[in-house]
Hints:
Chains A, B: Keywords: ATP-binding, Ligase, NAD, Nucleotide-binding. Chains A, B: This is Glutamine-dependent NAD(+) synthetase. Chains A, B: InterPro entries: C-N_Hydrolase (IPR003010), C-N_Hydrolase_sf (IPR036526), Gln-dep_NAD_synthase (IPR014445), NAD/GMP_synthase (IPR022310), NAD_synthase (IPR003694), Rossmann-like_a/b/a_fold (IPR014729). Chains A, B: It is an enzyme of class 6 (ligase). Chains A, B: Deamido-NAD(+) binds at residues 384, 413, 523. The structure is a homodimer of 552-residue chains. Chain A is of the alpha/beta class and 552 residues long. Chain A folds into two domains: 7-264, 4-Layer Sandwich (Nitrilase/N-carbamoyl-D-aminoacid amidohydrolase); 276-473 and 520-524, Rossmann fold, CATH 3.40.50. Chain A has helices at 21-37, 62-77, 170-174, 194-209, 274-293, 306-319, 336-349, 359-373, 380-401, 411-416, 437-447, 456-460, 473-476, 480-492, 497-502, 507-519, 521-524; strands at residues 7-13, 42-44, 83-91, 100-108, 111-117, 142-144, 147-153, 181-185, 213-216, 219-222, 225-228, 232-234, 240-243, 250-257, 260-262, 298-301, 324-328, 352-355, 404-407, 429-430. In chain A, the strands form four sheets. A seven-stranded mixed β-sheet of chain A has the order 5-4-3-2-1-14-15, with helices on one face. In chain A, helix 6 packs parallel to helix 7 (336-349). The longest helix of chain A has 22 residues, at 380-401. The radius of gyration of chain A is 26 Å and the shape is elongated. The relative contact order of chain A is 0.09. The model of chain A has no long low-confidence stretch (mean pLDDT 95). At the A-B interface, helix 2, helix 5, helix 8, helix 9 and helix 15 of A face helix 2, helix 5, helix 8, helix 9 and helix 15 of B.
Amino acid sequence: MLKNYRMKIALAQLNYIIGDFDYNTAKIIETIQSAKKQGADLVVFAELSVCGYSPRDFLEFSEFIDLCEVSAQKIAAACSGIACIIGLPTKNPKVKGKDLYNSAYFIEDTKVKAIVNKALLPNYDVFDEYRYFEPAVNFSCVEFMGHRIALTICEDMWNINDNPMYVISPMDELVIENPDLMINIAASPFSYNHDEERVQILGDNCRKYRLPLFYVNQVGAQTEIIFDGGSLVFDQDGSLLDELPYFSESLKIYSFEYGKIIGHKPIVHDTQNNIQQIHDALILGIKDYFAKSGFSKAILGLSGGIDSALVCALAAEALGPENVMAVLMPSEYSSDHSIQDALDLVNNLGCKHEIIPIKEAAAAFGNMMNPVFKDLPFNVAEENIQARSRAVILMAMSNKFGYILLNTSNKSECAVGYGTLYGDMAGAIAVLGDVYKTQVYKLSHYINREKEIIPENSIVKPPSAELRPGQKDSDSLPEYDILDGVLYEYIEHKKSSAELIAMGFDVALVKRILRMVNIAEFKRNQAPPILRVSPKAFGIGRRMPIVGKYLG
Amino acid sequence: MLKNYRMKIALAQLNYIIGDFDYNTAKIIETIQSAKKQGADLVVFAELSVCGYSPRDFLEFSEFIDLCEVSAQKIAAACSGIACIIGLPTKNPKVKGKDLYNSAYFIEDTKVKAIVNKALLPNYDVFDEYRYFEPAVNFSCVEFMGHRIALTICEDMWNINDNPMYVISPMDELVIENPDLMINIAASPFSYNHDEERVQILGDNCRKYRLPLFYVNQVGAQTEIIFDGGSLVFDQDGSLLDELPYFSESLKIYSFEYGKIIGHKPIVHDTQNNIQQIHDALILGIKDYFAKSGFSKAILGLSGGIDSALVCALAAEALGPENVMAVLMPSEYSSDHSIQDALDLVNNLGCKHEIIPIKEAAAAFGNMMNPVFKDLPFNVAEENIQARSRAVILMAMSNKFGYILLNTSNKSECAVGYGTLYGDMAGAIAVLGDVYKTQVYKLSHYINREKEIIPENSIVKPPSAELRPGQKDSDSLPEYDILDGVLYEYIEHKKSSAELIAMGFDVALVKRILRMVNIAEFKRNQAPPILRVSPKAFGIGRRMPIVGKYLG
């Protein structure tokens, strides 16, 4: 038995760019070289690290799969005297089944020594792995330096505690071969309660199989999906020994000998409050959207209200205030304090601003529509002309100067359709689209935790779209604490109207809210991608018929 | 043996509304009563007929599944002295596996006599069945009136000719029980080449298993997905005996005795030309979008160009010209002939129109932006102000009068991003978003097949957005016949740039087009739903990373 050979395992928690093979390959090779200098024997990268997660329908281009293999061979060539685990899609050599596997290569001393395929393919919420991959049905451990490694990919460790979704459990098969440790490579997206769940599920695996575990997650935002890192190390009792930082890249080396991880004592998972986590996730989401798109400068409309103030503060933190252009676009219905609140914010942040009143555009459209509208009363048509005129201004600035427009709609508004399509619903990325209004307040207080950045007045005044005299959100919507309560149960927990009413919510209120949510589906369908911070965000993780009659 | 009992089978090809249980249930029960009066013993409805296809994430609401069962029981209660087959999602009673099956109920004399579950779950293109359903693994035939029926659901007959995607073939299992006939209930969406494929694949099943087949498809549009009907009847040699109409509802009764379908001779599948099929599909797509959304009146911007002219003609045919409002919004760059061409079309169709010049709005925005734009040269910013001002006008009309905006962008433009987000890319439904520009010409000639409806001048003049003096599409884009050739191979056939170049396309041209397609992903992500008429439409069937670097 050679199990007393000391093995140094490096966990590489990196931020990849989907489909940028040059970038990802260079980053992986540099990390291998750095780990080698630090004495590592094995460097572990995340699921689909070669191409980024998720490549979606890029996977249907056979050249894309070929380029993954080319990258893997370059990485292998750089593994002289060291081993690594990388993730990539590979071709299914079988005659039957889907074209691809979601695979891990175990590379040792420039050679691909073992290929492990994923068996449990998530196909819920934002995941579409059955669209591309054939599930693995054969399992075997990898031998390395006298240790037997049970290597699995992400979801393959999630059929613990009799998760009813899956019929098999890969670790049940692998454990038959008496492995010495488990390694799991993952691409596990952030939501505000997912870190606790990961620590629990992965620790349960250790306790069930009596094995230590090294778990490597991706970090970084891929459009709407944010990977939070937080890679984990457990001993065979399921005690957490270490966790890599959240929301940043990291490389850390561990020693493994006599079936144990050396030099670490159990720690307690650093449970941060949800609001701080959401804050950090949104910052990374904004930062990566811009960096990976090749843009640096953001623009947004600043109304004096809390939503746009919060987005402005987040953008200034993510991109630097010098890269944020806030545009104040008052109308005849804007209150004086709104302009002052917006200016106070701009001053507090140090970002750029312009003031472009929309009166002239609103008047022009008024004149132009007059022969058609005649003396019909002012209604939502005129309200929306204002919101859309603002979008025209912001997009003109974007087109002229290369700014990218940030959308400032919150999840409560998105849910009930309280927003103007092609108006305030415009933008390249929706920063708060998965943040309920009640959470917007909490995030704003968090931004102000050390000093007042978002003017107190923006936080305390009654929310208003200011599209007609004296307008308040509460004219059209229930109070946000009540609204958000119903929305949370309906969207996150998929409660029907009958169940909501049984929970004590008012019958008429429930019917009204569910109806608003459902008739707004056509609007959400054209909304920008939304930075996902909850277990159920609008966008690719929630797929509803646009024309459909069921209200829940 | 009772096989000589004559059985009368009614095929019910109906148009359902997703989630409208009252509507669907009433329609199914009325059809059963009608078929019973005509002497039918068994009425066959389509896949998921109880709830419509596809209910998407409605399926994640447990109440939705309960309501499907309630509907099925109502339908069963109406089946006194008659049998029927309906499709619905059902709960998976197993401890393991996904929550639901995609099922068929065989109802006989008010009782559910057999439940058949679908085994092959499409999860490609627009399909997401693995998101919801557990695949069936057990198969058995249904006995009825002395006949043994191999009842399957849609895709379960598509693993013929060794389709590599699937590992099992349900008919291989069912044929062991020596059935007398096959019945397949389907929800098979239209694309312009799919009818031939269906006739081929289903006929191959008959030839392989030496059994006759009754095949019932849905008809009707569900937002972007259009079901074309065309239900089929085959004898045991795989000869086509009958086909129900395309793009309309139908109920037809067949007699089956001594293992044969009586009174029908082989026919040749009525292969219509693709352009006529696309035309019929778009008409149904428009009609059902409005009818199922509860709207009747459409609005669109009419430029004098061919795309908006074609959409106007299609809308007038689908909704009646009295329900179509065409808005002419000339700018200083509009040519005189454009206005005249648009007016000629309006006159030819008899639809309503307004003329609202955008000069005043463009001037207002010019003044408003002047302090910021200063003396920077006219560029895409000013071009887009015009396109977006038009969207403001159209949406104001929509908000004031209840019109629904039709988008007029074609597939070639969508592909390369030749359109203004929140401008001419606005609309509730994109009529031509899956129709290449070269097909737009063919469709326009088809519209004019009997007399000139679309003015010849709109067809023959060089395409132009008319957003700056003398602008032509060919200033920014390759000629459409070349562009469409590359796009077709790239989008429909997923060819990489290397493969396209190997096919003989110019290197620089290919790189340029693929780059345009990929950087437009963020625009398409916010485009309206697109009526799908090809095997690969933009929208839910083509899922690309927005921030991603692979160009193909």
